[in-house]
Amino acid sequence: MDIDIIEVSKGSAKFVLSGTNAAFANGIRRAMIADVPTLAIEFLNLNDNTSVLYDEQLALRLALVPLSTDSEYVPQADCTCGGIGCPACEVTLRLDVEGPKMVYSGDFIAADPKVRPADEKIPIVDLKEGQRIMLEAIAHVGYGRDHVRWQAGVACGYKNIPILTVEKCESCGNEIYETPDGIVYLIDGEARISDDDILKCAKCGFQKRVGDLNDPASLKVTFDETSFIFTLESDGSYSSSELILKAADVIKERAQEFAGILQDL
């Protein structure tokens, strides 16, 4: 199995996963969405809220603010405190602002200085003169499979690498009917396929005619069942590279756990 990075940034990545099957590719996708633990606000202690938002609306918005941290917090179910709450499994954040002011995610002050919003410019609510929000938020580690607030991978998907072949082109003529991003082009009247641009093929459900040949089967589209183009976006709680590695760790840990169960049979 090989991974070839096409492009990568802090919040997104695109890579080719080859030498495997759709089941494993989907396992990676699901792990990035549902099984990588993240930190998110779960409870609020509201002391004052005179904004235009109901308490429930405010709680929902704050819960969906991605939090990043360098500290190692554990899920409450795995903590030695038994789920009561301790510095190992939860962190508190305080918010105390008065209008007139636009409240942003960066206005939070966390008890742990290593905990911070992934983006400090997420707007929460616009406070007018005389309005105030004062609260204490409690954040826990959780999984996207339990609630979207803990979903680190917000847009993760894959598709098979397309295989385009020109089966017959006896009279290609002087033009090629439209194909995405110049994937098919002419050289001396002969249709060619650009290997460099093949990954740009978005859906590849087309059967285009080439030149004067009025045969839609002249361009054949098939798919490589062992190679996949992955695209992903992170919510910011992890960088895209960290998200990929943590998803791989989840798959590895589950495989080891399953192997241990089989050995005990």
TrEMBL record:
GO MF terms, alphabetically ordered: DNA binding; DNA-directed RNA polymerase activity; protein dimerization activity
Gene expressing this chain: rpo3
First-tier enzyme category under EC: transferase
GO biological process: DNA-templated transcription
Family from the record: Belongs to the archaeal Rpo3/eukaryotic RPB3 RNA polymerase subunit family.
Keyword Transferase: yes
Enzyme Commission number(s) of this protein: 2.7.7.6
Record has DNA-binding as a keyword: no
Name of the protein this chain belongs to: DNA-directed RNA polymerase subunit Rpo3
Annotated keywords: Cytoplasm, DNA-directed RNA polymerase, Nucleotidyltransferase, Transcription, Transferase
Cross-referenced SMART domains: RPOLD
Pfam families attached to this UniProt entry: RNA_pol_A_bac (PF01000), RNA_pol_L (PF01193)
Function as written in the Swiss-Prot or TrEMBL entry: DNA-dependent RNA polymerase (RNAP) catalyzes the transcription of DNA into RNA using the four ribonucleoside triphosphates as substrates.
Subunit structure: Part of the RNA polymerase complex.
Domain DNA-directed RNA polymerase RpoA/D/Rpb3-type: 12-261
An annotated GO cellular component: DNA-directed RNA polymerase complex
